[in-house]
Amino acid sequence: MADDLDVSRSTVNRALRNLVDAGVVKRRGNVYETTLTGRAALDAFNQCVRSLRGIVTARDLLSMLPPDAPLDPVFFSGATVHTSTPQIPDSVMQRLFGSIEDADCLYGVAPVALAGQLRPFYETATAGGTTVEMILSNELFEKLVDTPDSRAVIAEQLRRETVTIYRTDVPFGFGLWTVGDEAGIVVYTDTGVGGIARNDEDDAVSWAKAQFDSLREEATLVTDAALDGDE
C-alpha cells in the first residue's frame, strides 16, 4: 500500500490505526477489512459525491429556480440535464416527449403550461394508450379553462377513459413527471422552457412519485361540470 500511494510505511500504519480507532476498519492478522460502519460510511460518501456532481451538472438549470425550490439533491444524483438553446428552443420539449411517449403510466404535476405545447403534450402522452394522471395548479387550471383552445384540449382529455386530471394548489414552480422507472422535472422561465432533468435511479423516481402522491391526496378531481363552472 505504501508503494501504491507513494507514501512512507509509517504514514500508512498511522492512517490504518486511525481507521481502526474510528471503527470503520478492523484488523484480522495482517489483513485489514472494512466494518459494517465503514461500508455504510463509504456508501454515504459515494452517494454524496454523486449528488454533488449531479448538482454541478445541473447548476445552469438550478439557477433558473428560486432558492427555496423544494428539490431534493438526491434527484440530481445520476441525472441527465438538458437546457434550451436559442438555436433549437424546442429541443428540450422533444426530450420530454421522448420520455413519455411509450410509457404505460404517466403521473405529472403542472404548475405552468405553454399554450402551444398543451395539445402536443397530451397527444404524445395518450397516443399509445398510456394511463395518464395529471395534477394542474389551480391558477393554471383557471387560465386553461378561460382560453377556448386550451379548454377544448382539457375537455377532449376528460372524455378519455385513460386520462384523469386533478387540480390543487401546487407549492412549487417546476413541472414534474414519472413514467415507470424514470422521473423528470421541467423548469420554466419567462421566455419558455428553460430545461429539464431526467433520472432513472430508484431514489429519484421515489422522490418524484412521493411529490405527486402527496399533492393528489388533497387534489380535486376535474370533471366536465368543473369546466362548465358547475362545481
Structure write-up:
By secondary structure, the protein is α+β, with helices and mostly antiparallel strands. It folds into 2 domains: 2-34, no CATH class; 65-227, Endonuclease, Chain A (2-Layer Sandwich). Helix content is 46%, strand content 23%. The chain contains 10 helices and 10 strands. It has helices at residues 2-5, 9-22, 36-57, 59-62, 91-100, 115-126, 138-145, 148-158, 202-218, 224-227, and strands at residues 25-28, 31-34, 80-83, 105-110, 131-137, 163-168, 175-179, 182-189, 192-199, 220-221. The strands form 2 sheets. It has an 8-stranded mixed beta sheet, sandwiched between helices. A hairpin with a 2-residue loop joins strand 1 and strand 2 (31-34). It is elongated and about 80 Å long.
